[in-house]
Design brief:
49% of the residues lie in helices and 17% in strands. The chain is of the alpha+beta class.
Length: 521
Amino acid sequence: MSDSPAGRAREAARRCEAAGLTPEADMLYRLAETLETQDRAAASASLARVLLASGHADAARPYALDGSDPVLVARLLFEDHDFGEARRLLDEARRRDPFDPRIASARGRLGFLEKRFDDAVGDLLEAALLKPDGLPDAADRRFLRAARALAPESIPGWKEAVAGARDRLAREAAERAPGVPWPDRSAELLRSLIRRSGLASEGILDRARRLAELPALRGLDEGALFWAAAAGDLRRLARGSILYRTGEPAGEISLVLQGTLSLVRTTPVGEQPMGVAETGDFIGEEALVGAARTSDARATGPATLLGFPAEAFSAEPERAGWLRHLRLRLARRLSRLDDLFRHFFPDEGRPGRETDGAGPGAADAAPELSLEDRARSLGSVGLSESDRFLFAVFADEKHYPAETALFREGDPGEALCVIARGRVRISRRISGGEEAFAILNPGEIFGEMALLDPGSGRSADALAHEDAVVLELSRERFDALEAADPEGCADLSLLLCRLAARRSVETAERLAQWRILAGPG
């Protein structure tokens, strides 16, 4: 006997037939056929959703039609730009079921494509109110922001728009179920819209367009650009104007939209250049780690910037694209600081690759850490529990005897490292000696430039200060993880941004100290 509803109905029909209950048997056979048809349609619709999500619209088409799902069929019609038929299909579906959030969401996206922005906003808000949490999903939120930016004059304020969507649904519910209270989720929705995008939309579209025109921002989707345009504060600087000064508290990080800013640190023995920030660069990374400004930032000509509070770059999934861009630009900033720092040291003082000992294989006899121990060693890194276990699974475990070189300055960067046991010394060779920068303890990360800037070599030596166990996440594995799930890697991406910002602050301070040691000139 089948465990499916159709199978059970068919078995019951056979029993009725055997008992001479022909009318009942006929009714159950018809029910079984109906259930089988529904099962096939549900399976076809599920397969169509998978194919559409993976970008195979043509392959999804027959399954969407078999599934008789109006939303899926409408999505295919969107692809064909047959908006009239899509509108007819979705309007008919809404008349049958005005409380399906998928139908309301599809109608909203169709309205956006038709440039009926007022209708689009109303439908998208209805879709949010019909969900259990009363909030729009990430895609609908992007359409809401975009519609508001594209047609601010035809769309009421969020308060009025949300109230209108709520009242329409409440009236529809009252007609079908008089006396039944309608759940009002409008307050949560309104708070979400105000918190995420603000009530004002003036100038947002122009900013988003300017962001889209920056070559450095190619690859960011429209939603990410609208978010930045709405969340950032515009700054315009005249030639010679100061954005901030050394030692000031850092409350903001800025994206350079136009122009160039020079970064300079004044020391008792003269000025120390700290690099430049050009169009597409971020400036003011100290804000990410709560440090004071490490230099003066001066506009070399007219400049335009978009300023963000540090907390704007959170690990929310919709920020994943921006975190990746921020990570790359901070890597560029750190690499430039390292180049400036190298000017203090003669090239001949840097040795080539050395093993300085038996190498990582010498300690292979030591027992490997369990997955739990690996994840536990990452407890102070700042990752969520799921990310720690993910890192622990994909990272390679290496054992290094004391004084073994993990890598040397100039070596290709191949992996991000986390110390699970022991300690690691970060240093540089100068004039035949060793200048130690830091001794890192269990739970600390180093070698992050392998992920931040794959084209750069190692900026310093790393040696086992004592017997050490290190977890190494290769660049190839990280790239594969991020390509498969960029939103899921947002926590690690934010961590890398903060590491790059911290290293930049530390390197800038060392630059100033070495400038003083070098004396006037």
